[in-house]
Fold this protein.
Amino acid sequence: MTTIRSTRISSLDVLRGIVMVIMALDHVRDYFHAGAMVSDPSNLETTTPFLFFTRFITHFCAPVFIFLAGTSAFLYGRNKTRHQLFWFLFTRGLWLIFIEVTLMTLLWWFDLTFSFFNLQVIWAIGLCMIILAFLIYIPKKILVLTGLVLIFGHNLLDGIVAQGNSFGAIIWYILHQANFVKFGDTWVSFLYPILPWIGVIVLGYCFGNLYHKEFHAPARKKWLLSLGIGSIVLFLLIRGINVYGDLVPWEVQQNGTYTLLSFLNVTKYPPSLLFLLVTLGPAFLFLYLAESVKTKLSDFFLVYGRVPFFYYVVHVFVIHVAAIVGLILTGKDWQIMILNMDSIMDGSMAGYGYSLGITYLVWIGIVLLLYPVSRWYMIYKAKNRDKWWLSYL
């Protein structure tokens, strides 16, 4: 086995790898599960507990991914000048936006007419990185306060609702209101309004201080434990009070199980305060527990965590192709997988899909299929640190 020395912090990469693997479950569900393209697994009137939690566990992916993007920016900048870090964040942000609008749009839909631009997490990270490039010049204490205000205060803006596709409305969709907009024959989705995500990446950047070489491990573990427990307790308190922190209050349902689902059914688009508390809290606890853990399982997840962007791009392509292959093998029309918003909205996808059990099997198969190529790329990057362009992939 090839051994590569690395100065990277394993627990952060393992956590990132776990959320990348879980993320694939959500995307496999999108392409394989019956009704996934025309129904909402969080709709308590139609979902089942198993389907709800299949969706719920994937909620951890975007917050952790964006938070750790901020942490990675801090760690990358430890041996760089402020100007060098600014330029890296600014150019990488532009690069991610370009990839989202071009390559990812093509891979998600296989629509050569580009009739639908689905601006998702890569878009959000790109914009947040550009903004973070300017914010790194602010003193750390003010930066922490800025992140906290954005995360804890952005739900005060929930009552501001824009309509249409005017310039002002588009700006608001980018900042805080998720929406789908049609320009002529082209659809654009704004599912990742960036105002709260800026708060997440900013706090992730500040969080990187805990992993500075001069920060002692026992002190870091105390911080991780406090942040984890504090976030979860805050979630329980604020959600229990039920007057702030999410677009949708929880309600007593027909039984205890569905009442619990209602309690956990927090808003992702944009991510509410409660959504971020319930996802980032357990992430802090994981980092506390995984500080010095090294097992075969952690090494497995480590691979995906060290090549997240590469894995993200490849896994979308493989999942989409696998969905087409499944249709061909079952003698169905594979062309329904050449997707656009109109084909989804007209109900033509309503009869497509497989059971949740099949969906899980496909997920496991695709994750294992991508392990060798992900590991190869991880080793290639580690051996070629002098190639500057690899930091963008």
